[in-house]
Amino acid sequence: MTTKLFGEPIPRREDERLVLGQGRYLDDLGRQAVAAAFVRSPHAHARIRDIDVSRALDVEGLIAIYTWEDLPGLVAEPLPLLIPHPALTHGRTAYPLAKEIVRHVGEPIVMVVATDRYVAEDVCGLIDVDYEFLKPVVGLEEAAQGVHLVHEDVPGNLGAHLVQEVPARDGRSVAEALESAPHVLEFRLDIERSASMPLEGRGVYARWDADDRSLRVYSSTQTSTSVRMALAAKLGLPLPQVEVIAPDVGGGFGVKIVHPWPEEILVPWAAITLGREVKWAEDRREHFISSAHERGQVQHIKVGFDEQGRVLALDVDILHDHGAYTPYGIIVPIITATQLLGPYKIGAYRVVFSSIYTNTVQVTPYRGAGRPQGVFAMERTMDRIAAHLGLDRTDVRAANFIGPDEFPYDQGLIFQDGRPLIYDSGDYPESLRMLKELIGWDDFPAMKQAAAEEGRRIGIGVGCYVEGTGVGPYEGGHVQITSDGRVHVSTGLTSQGQGHETVFAQIAATELGVPFEKVSVVTGDTRRFGYAVGTFASRAAVMSGNAIALACRRVREKALKIAADALEADPRDLEITDGVVHVVGAPAAGIPLATVAVLSNPLRYAFDEEAQRATQFAGTADPDKAPLEDEPGLEGKDYYSPIRSTFASGMHAAIVETDPDTAEIRILRYAVVHDCGRLINPMIVEGQIHGGVAQGVGGALYEKMAYDEHGQLLNASFMDFLMPYVTEVPHIETAHLETPSPLNPLGIKGAGEAGVIPVSSVIAGAIEDAEGIPIMRMPISPSDLYDLRRATD
Amino acid sequence: MPDLHEISLIVNGVVREVTVPARRLLSDCLRHDLGLTGTHVGCEHGVCGACTILLDGEPARSCLTLAVTAAGHEITTVEGLAGDDGPSAVQRAFRECHGLQCGFCTPGFLCTATALLRENPAPTDEEVVEGLSGNLCRCTGYQNIVKSVHRAAELLAEES
Fold first, then answer.
1. Per-residue pLDDT tens over the stretch A133-152
2. Within 13 A of B10's CA, how many CA atoms are on the CB side?
């Protein structure tokens, strides 16, 4: 292998079109399609008494109006519960259009199709829905009391209740270990809702070919293969007649892994019913009130520890707000409960969660997916222990670390993939050493003292996390070298800005020994690859990266075999350089992969001059052998299916300044040490970290979903939901540690979510250090801090 | 059906005739009537800046502008930033510095940065941050966008 591209920070392939305005996002397609719009509930909880469309019928340009009663067969059934779990005893999903009851502001009730979106929205405005108001259930603790119900048949609003307990190594339970612990602390933590909030909302565009009886759907999704399966099932179409394509997708961050969304079924169904192309592109208000949120939890923690700060027992009780429906099951609280343990080996652990219905937008994974909450719990606990014992916060963490020689390390729990929570590799002490050096941890007390002398308040915080990445079950890759020497790579999972066209091409070029420019990559197009899971859980590089590498190895083996015959050499003596197969050390006498591709497909009919080499009288084939020994074509397919997840890790530290008068909070420095195993493209990994930290800063200081007691989302716009601009995000200093994963051929771990995970805990710790006031609730605004100061005085 | 208006816009140097209702947003007119889908719409209330175009050379929110009010004016969209010899310095710098990920907000940043560097060819860090402070990006954390603008300033200086 001479073409070393794996590990290089090469510029992204996809940018060539994106900077020119030549991307193809969902709403850039289907200029001739008619438009869908939706009447959505303005009430959080109500019974629909009547829907009156009479005022809307005369609008010029109206094509169709649909309510639940118009929907046929399986289209009228509730949306699928994607991830069932035995503990989710009361899972509930929505109907594509509301049937009788609406359970959150924004729930779709009527679909309108019209000549354009303006007309469709005019029509929506003329449809009168008569509601009987029901009591909205808002607020996690109020909901948990179960006085009023979101679903009449779900007592206590309790969707799921799960208890997991791992006894201490000596067999003692949490209760016993707490009883005998030298120190015990008990406290409560709160974390609020935020949302993925990609700059491009969701969107669907469907074309029905009545002659061919086939359906093509474009969706701004994180899983086109799974949308395809769901559509074929819901619409009763043969799977081969349905194709789903994720075009360029303007960010996902989790929200677009949920599927099928109501619109993902309704728009294709309308396209078939009407015999017209139909498109719907979500607007920003719709995204706030009709897609998904995440993060909201209340956590009660009881921890027992010794004089060194070693945790002997940890008892965590979590109330998790999953909103009105549970299409994604209880993945978020499961991840919180398991990933809470971080890089630590603690004594006995017991975690209980109750997943609760409220009359708010449903909760499904948002980048980090339950980990920011778990890390908030654990890292705040570490800080409380350090404060209680008067120890350095990093020393307490170090005292609890799993050692570099203790891998694989079994935490004794079941992870989100249904597999044991076993960490594969890592070096936490080294990571902490690097972080302390990067941020200047040991010099900080002097810096703080100097600042204090100037009347300034500064503080430092630290947070550690372990992230299970690359969850299964599998991904696949297909690689084809054609007779023009080009390499066509495809994988089923989708892309939302991660640079897959570039990194997968780096992998393929490295594995095959071909120039990078010869390789093209297609993702998320079921016409090219039908089997996949999706892009979430920091899994794309691990899963598809390894699958593509394995597929390349098959193709390489086949190329060497064919070339060996042609060169009358032993395949073991051959290598590929710059797309030419040759005997090691003799690059001049070789055979280009383009020619190997021709020879791989024995021909009767030549379609061009090069192809003549593969025809029956060309003299290239051994007349004593069957012409075809293997499959025709220089191509191969393979899958990567890991036994379990691979565990990336990292540590962040921040220095913040708080204004003594205004309580304004400013991040002065932010440092990240990150370990995602071997790096395919360090520039892209850094970009992922930067973006994650920025979202973390948003979640720590600015973003929340402000619901009032009626279940109205008061800040459903970018004017009021404060996402960080360039002015709010600090410069991020990064350092990489590479402990390869032993679980996969490339030794890589996921990197997509890492940046966001510990930010709230780090910022909380830093503010606490600056102010000397416990910070137990995030996000925190200047007014929150001001109120905390007044309450403390 | 609302009254229609025949207007003429000068888009990327080309006169384009189009018939629109008075309420048609400039962003929708560019995207759906003229097929220039490089301009993106992220919020439709003028906060995210994804729809930023240059109106007579100045950055403007095309989602807050009615197409009829742009009649007779010169508009530059992301499709008009590149020259005959390829991508502009700003476009090249964004690629070189990894200043984009999903790319959805990018056209707005490119237009904003183009105007910024025309006004101020060698901006300080603070001036770049100030200049970009009306555009939202959910992917990059902005660090590489700031770097891209500085790099574009260098490339422009080398070209002149």
1. 999 999 999 999 999 999 99
2. 8
Q: Which residues of chain A have pLDDT under 70?
A: 1-3
To test the contact with chain B by mutation, choose from A14, A17, A19 the residue with the greatest count of B C-beta atoms within 10 A, namely A19
Question: Does the interface predicted TM-score (ipTM) exceed 0.85?
Answer: yes
B138/A731 touch (CB, cutoff 8 Å), yes or no: no
List, in order of start, the domains of chain A with CATH numbers.
33-134+196-290 (3.90.1170.50), 372-416+424-468+645-792 (3.30.365.10), 472-640 (3.30.365.10)
Tell me the whole-structure pTM to 2 decimals.
0.96
* Contact predicate A191/A376, CB 8 Å: yes
The Cα B35–Cα A734 span in angstroms is 41
Query: What domains appear along chain B, each with residue ranges and CATH number?
Result: 4-80 (3.10.20.30), 89-159 (1.10.150.120)
* Token digits of residue A312: 């002997």
For B84-143, the pLDDT digits (tens) are: 999 999 999 999 999 999 999 999 999 999 999 999 999 999 999 999 999 999 999 999
- A18/B1 CB distance under 8 A: no
Give B51 to chain A, closest Cα distance, Å: 11
A626 part of contact set with chain B, CB < 8 Å: no
Is A198 in contact with B136 (Cβ distance < 8 A)? no
Question: Per DSSP, which regions of A337-431 are E strands?
Answer: 348-357, 409-414, 420-423
B146/A283 Cβ within 8 A: no
For helices A371-389 and A759-771, the axis angle rounded to 10 degrees is 30
CA distance B100 to chain A (A): 8
Distance between CA A235 and CA A241 in Å, rounded?
Answer: 11
Chain A nearest-CA distance from B14, in A, is 17
- Measured CA to CA, the distance from residue A499 to residue A518 in angstroms comes to 17
State pLDDT tens for residues A359-404.
Answer: 999 999 999 999 999 999 999 999 999 999 999 999 999 999 999 9
